[in-house]
Design goal:
The chain crosses the membrane at residues 38-60, 155-177, 211-232, 244-269, 290-311, 331-353. This protein is mainly alpha-helical and 374 residues long. The chain has 14 helices and 4 strands. The chain folds into 2 domains: 17-59 and 149-370, no CATH class; 69-136, 3-Layer(aba) Sandwich (D-Maltodextrin-Binding Protein, domain 2), CATH 3.40.190.10. Helix content is 65%, strand content 5%. The protein is elongated and about 95 Å long.
Length: 374
C-alpha cells in the first residue's frame, strides 16, 4: 500500500546542464555520421584522391633524371663541370668512354678542347647533347627585388587551403541542415526540447560537426603528408607544415561561424525542398575564400583586406603568413575579429533556433525569428 506513496516521493533525475546536454548532442551527431556508409565512403574517396594526386605529381611531375656523362682528359677545364645536375661515370680513357656511349650507359662524353671558348667539348652519340652543354654554359646570378619568385607555389597553397575550407564547410553544413529538418519533420525535436534547451541542441550540433570537420582535415593532411614522404617530396612537406598549423587555428572559429549560419537557416524551414533558399547565401559565403585566394592570391591589397573579413580570413591570413607578408600583430588581430564574429553569429543563430525550431509548415521569416515579439 505504501509503494505509490514512496514512488511519488522518489527523487527525479537532475536536469542536464547546458554543457552536459551539448556534449550529449555532439556525441550523437558524431556517432550517427561516423556510422553512415556515405560518410565513410566519401572519406575514403577523398583520401585516395588527395594521396593519389600527390603521388602522381611526384612520379610524373617531378624533374627528369640527371644526365650521365663520362669525363675524359678534361685537364684544368674539369673545374667548369658542375657538381650538381650531372652524374659522372668513370671511364679509363676515350675508348672506354665511347664504348659506354655506344652502349647507352651514358648520355655524353666531356673532354678537353683547346679551340672551345670554355676549354671543353661535349660528344654525343647521334645528336648534339644540348642539355649537357647548357649545364656547362656560364650564366649570371639571378635575383629579384621582391624575393624568390613563388608564383606556382602560391597558387598551389591557395587552392589547397581554399578547397579544403570550402569542401568541409559545405559538406558538414549541409549535414547539419539535413539532420535539423529531418528532426523537425519527424517531431523528434519536440522530444529533444522537452529535456534540453534549443541553445544546447544548437551548440551540440555545431560542436559535433566541428569535431568531425577538424577530424576530416587531420585525416586529409595526414594522407597528404604520407603521400609526400612516400613520393620523395619531403621538401614540399617541410614548407607546408607551419602554414597548415596556422590554417587549422583559423579554421576552427571560421567553421563554427559557417555552421551556426547553416543551423539557423535550417531551423527556418520544415521541408528539405524549402532549404535551398535559406542555405544558398551561406553556401556562397563558404565559397568566398576559395575564389578570393585563387583569383587574387597575388594581389596584396585584396589579400590584406580578405585577411580581416571573417568569411575569408581562415584562408587568406594563413596564406599571407606562409609567405611572410603579414606583420606580427596581424594574425592576432584577424583571429580576434574572427572569434568575435563567431560568437556573435552563434548568439544570433541561437535566437533564430529557439524561436523557429518548433514551428512547422510555412517558412519562418528571418525578421520574425530575430524579432523581440512572442
Amino acid at each position: 500500500m505504501s509503494t505509490p506513496a514512496l514512488a511519488s516521493r522518489a527523487p527525479s533525475p537532475a536536469p542536464l546542464s547546458i554543457g552536459q546536454a551539448s556534449l550529449l548532442v555532439a556525441e550523437r551527431e558524431i556517432i550517427s555520421q561516423v556510422r553512415s556508409k556515405a560518410f565513410l565512403v566519401s572519406q575514403i574517396i577523398t583520401i585516395l584522391f588527395v594521396a593519389g594526386g600527390i603521388v602522381a605529381m611526384g612520379l610524373f611531375g617531378g624533374g627528369e633524371d640527371e644526365p650521365e656523362v663520362a669525363v675524359v682528359d678534361a685537364g684544368q677545364a674539369a673545374q667548369l663541370i658542375p657538381s650538381d645536375g650531372l652524374e659522372q661515370v668513370e671511364a679509363a680513357d676515350m675508348a672506354a668512354a665511347e664504348e659506354l656511349l655506344r652502349g647507352g650507359d651514358i648520355d655524353a662524353i666531356i673532354t678537353a678542347d683547346a679551340d672551345s671558348p670554355v676549354g671543353l667539348q661535349v660528344i654525343g652519340l647521334d645528336s648534339e647533347p644540348t642539355e649537357v652543354a647548357q649545364m656547362l654554359s656560364a650564366a649570371p646570378s639571378l635575383v629579384t627585388l621582391e624575393g624568390e619568385n613563388a608564383g606556382t607555389l602560391r597558387m598551389v597553397v591557395a587552392m589547397l587551403f581554399g578547397l579544403v575550407f570550402m569542401m568541409l564547410s559545405i559538406t558538414s553544413g549541409m549535414m547539419i541542415v539535413q539532420n535539423t529538418i529531418q528532426e523537425k519533420q519527424s517531431r523528434i525535436v519536440e522530444i529533444l526540447l522537452s529535456s534540453i534547451t534549443a541553445q544546447s541542441l544548437l551548440a551540440g550540433k555545431v560542436l559535433g560537426n566541428s569535431v568531425l570537420a577538424i577530424g576530416q582535415a587531420v585525416v586529409i593532411a595526414s594522407a597528404a603528408a604520407a603521400a609526400l614522404m612516400l613520393s620523395g617530396q619531403q621538401d614540399v612537406l617541410d614548407m607546408l607544415t607551419v602554414p597548415m598549423l596556422w590554417f587549422v587555428l583559423f579554421f576552427v572559429p571560421g567553421f563554427v561561424l559557417i555552421a551556426a549560419m547553416f543551423a539557423a537557416g535550417a531551423a527556418l524551414v520544415s521541408r528539405q525542398e524549402d532549404s535551398g533558399a535559406v542555405v544558398t547565401p551561406t553556401m556562397m559565403l563558404s565559397m568566398i575564400p576559395y575564389f578570393v585566394v585563387v583569383f587574387f592570391h597575388d594581389t596584396p591589397l585584396i589579400m590584406t583586406i580578405a585577411s580581416y573579413v571573417p568569411f575569408s580570413a581562415p584562408v587568406a591570413m594563413p596564406l599571407r603568413m606562409f609567405f611572410n607578408e603579414a606583420m606580427w600583430f596581424e594574425p592576432i588581430l584577424a583571429l580576434a575579429i574572427l572569434l568575435t564574429s563567431a560568437v556573435v553569429f552563434m548568439l544570433l543563430a541561437a535566437r533564430i533556433y529557439s524561436r523557429s525550431l518548433l514551428r512547422t509548415g510555412q517558412r519562418v521569416p528571418l525578421r520574425e525569428a530575430l524579432g523581440s515579439g512572442g
